[in-house]
């Protein structure tokens, strides 16, 4: 009998093959960005509806329901205009399977190297301070000419 996790993984992988999965993902990403902008500007859903000339119920449905048939490019543009934002679409090559793990490993290596760099900088700084304190000590030990 297959584990629950492996069954879920298979279902998830199958779902990723359908355009509806990617459309919903894009819709959610967009709405998260609009929500963040609204929060930063103190815009309520009611104010957003007023700016767009639609009902507050419509805005609620856009944010809370899967309104795929009503969520068009026009909806994207109108929501963006209402919060004084612009839309940028970036298309990137699809990652190879397992590339997320490789990406995470590369970041980990980079962070490790930065941590080593920070340690090196701290050691160099400590050595500089040590040399400076010795040079001050040396000056205090020299006899003062009368």
TrEMBL record:
Recorded hits in InterPro entries, A to Z, give: Cro/C1-type_HTH, Lambda_DNA-bd_dom_sf
HTH cro/C1-type domain sequence ranges = 34-90
Q: What is this protein called?
A: Helix-turn-helix
């Amino acid at each position: 009998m297959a584990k629950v996790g492996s069954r879920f993984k298979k279902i998830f992988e199958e779902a990723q093959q359908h355009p509806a999965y990617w459309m919903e993902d894009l819709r959610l990403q967009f709405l998260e960005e609009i929500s963040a902008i609204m929060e930063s500007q103190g815009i309520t859903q009611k104010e957003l509806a007023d700016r767009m000339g639609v009902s507050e119920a419509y805005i609620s449905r856009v944010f809370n329901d899967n309104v795929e048939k009503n969520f068009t490019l026009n909806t994207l543009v109108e929501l963006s205009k209402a919060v004084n934002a612009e839309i940028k679409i970036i298309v990137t090559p699809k990652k190879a399977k397992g590339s997320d793990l490789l990406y995470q490993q590369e970041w980990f290596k980079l962070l490790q190297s930065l941590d080593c760099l920070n340690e090196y900088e701290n050691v160099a700084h400590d050595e500089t301070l040590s040399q400076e304190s010795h040079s001050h000590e040396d000056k205090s030990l020299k006899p003062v000419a009368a």
